[in-house]
Amino acid sequence: MSQPDRPNAADPIDWAAVVAQWPQAVVICDARGRLRFLNRAAEQALGASGDWRSGIVSLGQIYPAAFERRLRDEAFPAALQGRSWEGRVRLVGAAGASQADETEVRVFALKSGDDRLLVVVHYESADRGECAEALAEARARKRSILESSLDPIVSINHEGVIIEFNRAAEQVFGFPRDRILGTRPAEILFPPDLAEDHQKRIDRYLAAEEGSMLGKRAEVIARRADGRTFPAELAMAISQEGGSPILTFFIRDISQAKSDAAERARHEAELERSNQDLQQFAYVASHDLQEPLRKIKAFSERLRTQHAEHLDELGRQCLERIQSAAVRMQSLIDGLLTLSRVATGGLEFVPVNLEQIARDVAGDLEAQIERVGARVEIERLPTIQADPVQMRQLFQNLIGNALKFRRPDEPPLVRVSGRFLHRRGQRPAGSRPEEESARILVEDNGIGFDDQDAERIFGVFQRLHTREAYEGTGMGLAICRRIVERHGGTITAHGKPGVGSTFEVVLPVVPPASRRVEGGPSGPSDDDIVY
């Protein structure tokens, strides 16, 4: 700690406070060699009087003349150029008596704000040995870390040349370490047309010991030994070594990741085109089928009302089958049109109270509920951003299915419940309120199904039972999945034959397409989410 009675203790430079209690004698000078600070060990070793505190003492008053000249002519210039200087001196105390042993001296420069400080440290032989051993251990640890890194690490000294090039860098860039050490990085690691700009940035950061890209990640184009270029993610950090700045590059080859991303984007684009084509086909085909279907229905109805007396029993049965098939065909077309409109004809997303939607659906199904003696229990459900019409359709299909696929020996029981995946204040660190999701369960005690069919039931026109056993088109759950996916969510099903089934819907509070972008309007806060 600094001494409170010393003027230097109030100086903004903190190096004095750092070395004040060191057991080694430490002398700090400014860049012109003027004395700035002696720690207590230096006062005792050098026999300095209290006059130095007034700034009137010179180095010649605490060091032999020959050693003072070596400091000024050799040590200080070397330190100011970023190199450390080592020597030995036999000190002469205030009483003029020579000390029995020489001390080893190391001189280096440090930066404090806008100032450059020269530091002279004296070591006893034992101290020097311990320091050398600790330094060797530190260097060994540093080398072990560098070599075990999976990503390239490149360090550049204050002169702008490479002093560290780890094994991962050798593998990624294709240069042997011995070939790289001592070279300027921009000339080796970057394409020729980009080298000059990169080198200027490196030199500027080393000179200022700061820069806008420090601590951040940036994408750059790097070059391998064979001249091929590749995309890389680059982060930079500046540290001090021997009083001089060291700029370290942390590099990651992202060529495979970029290739994978491009491939995913291509597949997603193809899938989007395919989905649009299918939606367009379904829409057009459904419309094209409407006209002949209307004629079938119209003429069959005319035949039934105007010419039924001319038909025998077989003819009347055939007519009934034609009309029944026309009704099924109309249901299939309506389902196909509904499916195609989910993604193309939806409403804007607005706050939707899912509990109110579910209760409205139960009210719409009241006649059916009374007819089969069912009980529908709706618990508290959250409010999310969604398409209200499609949410109504989702609950209508799920609750309607539970009423349809009931067991004949037991009144249907349908339970609708839901909650947020995380309670208030328990979301993962760094997540935003709009990244929360709601989990909705629709459970029943119906006929159930085997879990091996859990995925198949969401297919278009997929049925697990005959039309005679349970009416329907096999489109309801396919529409549910399409609605949920449009909202950025998921729907899964679990069942057990003769016991019942559970449908689980996970919906984001705010669908991804509606979330804020960087610099855009803010998303909802915790207070905006109704739990």
Description:
Helix content is 41%, strand content 22%. It is an alpha+beta fold. The strands form four sheets. The chain has a five-stranded antiparallel β-sheet. Strands 7-6-10-9-8 form a five-stranded antiparallel β-sheet. Strand 1 and strand 2 form a beta hairpin. The radius of gyration is 40 Å and the shape is elongated. The N terminus and C terminus are likely disordered.
Note the topology:
Layout: H1 15-19, E1 25-29, E2 35-38, H2 40-46, H3 65-80, E3 85-89, E4 103-112, E5 115-123, H4 125-148, E6 153-156, E7 162-165, H5 167-173, H6 177-180, H7 185-189, H8 192-208, E8 217-223, E9 229-241, E10 244-253, H9 255-307, H10 313-344, E11 350-353, H11 354-364, H12 366-372, E12 375-378, E13 383-386, H13 388-404, E14 413-420, E15 437-444, H14 476-486, E16 490-496, E17 500-508
Keywords:
single chain, 531 residues, alpha+beta, 14 helices, disordered C terminus
Unreliable spans are 1-13, 94-100, 516-531
Quaternary structure classification: single chain
Helix content: 40-55%
| Sheet with most strands | 5 strands, antiparallel
The strands making up the biggest β-sheet line up spatially as 2-1-5-4-3
Summarize the structure.
This protein has 531 residues and is an alpha+beta fold.
